[in-house]
Structures
1.
Amino acid sequence: MNQLNLLDVQKYVEDNIGIFHKKRISSLQKLKLRTVLRKKNPYLFRAKYLLTAEQIVRSLTDAFISSNEETIFGDWLECLAIFINFQVYGGKKSGINGIDLEFDKDKIRYIVNIKSGPNWGNSSQIEKMKADFKSATRTLRTSGSGIQVVAINGCCYGKESNPDKGDYFKYCGQEFWEFISGRQSLFTEIIEPLGFKSKEKNEEFIEAYSRIINLFTKEFATDFCTTDGDIDWEKLVQFNSGREKYD
């Protein structure tokens, strides 16, 4: 075990946080209005009394951004966690399906599935993770018969009052970052470098976001508003939910 150098973590974050910002802008630029319109509930828009094209467009786009950014940043945090663990325990990105991180500590091989937060999946997704843990354990024990394997579901934020799940352990927030680094205070120490150039990067994102809102509003008004400027709810619902394809 090595001591974690926070300056190394800071440099890693500063060198790589731009990847997150580039991906969120790129994902936004690839977004298509009709794609998100087909995925959202038009009845909800009506029930919320949304009356303008821009209101609907912002509601659609903001929902997409919120979900998409969580995924993109979750992937980025996974890379950060693996980097930190490598510095301390020599851990690595696992080559086993369903396992994100492998490392040895106190003669135990830990296999880790990393998620953003604690409420990441439904019962079938959790069962899939447990099956992946069992399969990975069999694989590792075949290659090294005497190895002791412990499975961990690690969550980058949140809390878990009952970490022992029987087949695996679930560590969240402070417990997770301490587990992979041996440093109790890491969960607060990483928050500051994450803000590196965030104002500058967010200004770029806002510019891209504004262009998308303007383009989508124009497209929505052309395709789903009447000549009087009202939303054509029947046409919108037909596009979203009609039996035949509506173009």
2.
Amino acid sequence: MPNKYEVRDAVYGFIKFDDQERDIINDSCFQRLRRIRQLSLTDMVYPGANHTRFEHSIGVMQMATDMYDCIMEKSSEFVKDFLKLDNSGIMRWKKVIRLAALLHDIGHPPFSHAGEDLMPLHKPNDGKRYEHEEYSIAIIKSNFKALIEDHPINRNYGIKVEEVTALLGDPAVKTNSFALLWKNLISGQLDADRADYLMRDSLHAGVNYGIYDRNRLIHCMVLGKTETDSPIIAIQDGGCHIAESLVLARYQMFSQIYFHKTRRIYDHHIYLAAREVLINSGRKSGCYPPPNQLDAYLKYDDWAIQSGIKREKGGKHGKIIMNRDHFRCIYETDMIPSKQDAEKIEELSQRYHNAGIETFLDSPSTKWYKLDKDIGIYSERTGTLKSLSEISSIVKSMSAISKVQRLYAERRL
């Protein structure tokens, strides 16, 4: 019998893992995630928000496992008759999902999403930057291939590394119907990633905006069929309100935490400070190394950038972070800016420019709910599938994009 280990987690209590997963967690690439904060410099506003990609990644593995186990239990006949999976197939896919969930964020840059604008371009002047998912796929294929394929535990499964990266959207892998199905547990409207970070970010920020009934959500997840007879992960028709509450939790976290005006300006400051650190450290482009230079890329984490800032390689914005002397918001529009807003922003920007004072216009935006990836509400009694936006007028109205604008200025008046 393989050894079992456990670690105490602030969200789930205890999380268990096996020898292979422990070896992956102990790898230096994974340990790097201890030095990448989940929410960048959000602790400048919410002091408790110091949690990292490390604990989030382990948490996503647990959440994905809980979701998968409940789906298998609730949809056992569907799995046997429609998916044609026996017990060994069920256990094999569970292992693939756990590995993909554990490694899904392995490629994040320093300061998480705040660092993504420092990713290099795919091609000069094409405007498209590499994304952290592309780094994750490259790291898994190179640094974790042996730990996945050659580990003694894999004798029971025969898993290939491409089966793991397929669940992360690896374009080089031809995905089968199972990969397309289980990929939604890693990245989708009902994914384990989102389900974990809402609870975890709320806990560490000390707010209740991202709280939802986790147990109810998990126990309402089932497998259903689309009109074209494709399998889909859905919510039982009696659980539509828990799906609605998950979407509401995400809306509240974005509007109250992720789009907080002070938190947003620190994303701007760390972006510019990190770029200066990179330039002053010999990277003239001001960008991180590309995915084909993984050894160089993996040397960068929050500590490396903060060390550069502390050694005064972060320029003016590094000093701003050190002294917590951030730009102040001097003008903010409503959700949809008016013509008068645009004129006022232009007027203020010009006035501050003439005075030699730096400004920054921020336009945080996201879709609260993507109708093209609607959550399915499935009736096992009738075998029919409806979309959540059909049932919930609240969710349907949340598909709009936030277009609020904020003008910031440095404190020199």
